[in-house]
Amino acid sequence: MTYCVGLLLDAGMVLLSDTRTNAGLDNIATYRKMFTFEDAGERVITVLTAGSLSVTQTTIARLREAIEDDDATGETSIMLAPTMLKVAEIIGNTLASVREDIDHKMNATKVSVSASMIVAGQRAGGAMRMFLVYPEGNFIEATEDTPFLQIGEHKYGKPILDRVVKPSTSIEDAQKAVLLSMDSTLRSNLSVGMPLDLAVIERDACRVSSRRRIEAKDPDFARMSEAWSNALREGFSQIEL
Question: Residue 85: CB partners within 8 Å, gap ≥ 6?
Fold first, then answer.
């Protein structure tokens, strides 16, 4: 299992993913789940993945292969697509095709595979957009009413996002929100684990403005986690029945 979250704000986009993949309690590994495709100043696309590792890795590999194809067009390559909507369609179609191929191969074992993705980005002259792509290839989009999307083990980290995240939230506060959302998930579910990948895409930059790998013993993350725990305990003790 995994947990990934993306925020679509007036000032830009903030994205966070964990890196834990497991196939049972005795088979845990670390794999990157955040992938960036960038032509700095022209377009930037970041993809967060959750679900079957074979499905997500094959999907990313096929997207890269399509980009590198000498005959690539706006219908096949996310780096040539005319809009972010078309980018989401290409990724959705690729994900659905890969899932169907692998499902067919796994049919004899009666094991079903699934994966979902968050697709966030902007092209020069276009608006920032963020989509949640389902295993079947269909997708929904983040809006002003719901300016964040989650995939994977999302339930533990959702309450803080519901309470504090708005389109007007600053980039700094948004980073704090996604990290505390992840902290809540880490404390409640062992299938989500460090290290974490954090990325910020500022509005109209069309590139990743900052990225950070947060390791298990990162002192800043540990300090934030402890401060959040103390604030919750203090707030709880002050509430009267």
Answer: 129
Q: How far apart, in whole angstroms, are the C-alpha atoms of residue 161 and residue 182? A: 11
Q: Largest Cα–Cα distance in the chain?
A: 68
From first CA to last CA, the distance across the chain in angstroms is 37
* Tens-digit pLDDT profile for residues 169-204: 999 999 999 999 999 999 998 778 899 999 999 999
Buried b (16+ CB within 10 A) or exposed e, 194-228: bbbbbbbbbeeebebeeeeebeeebeebeebbeeb
Domain count of the fold of the chain: 1
Whether residue 118 contacts residue 132, with contact meaning beta carbons closer than 8 Å, is answered with: yes
Q: What is the pTM of this model?
A: 0.94
223 part of a folded domain: no
- Other Cβ atoms less than 10 A from the Cβ of 184: the count is 21
Q: Assess if residue 138 is contained within a domain.
A: yes
- Cβ–Cβ < 8 Å for 131, 141: yes
